[in-house]
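Translate sequence into structure tokens.
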Amino acid sequence: MWFAKIGDTLPSQLKDELATLKATLSA
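Result follows.
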């Protein structure tokens, strides 16, 4: 998915934020 590709280019902190967002959206 697009955010997985973007996540590969982000700093670790932003990747953590993105993971939290994905968890929220899938909850």
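Note: The first helix runs from residue 2 to 7.
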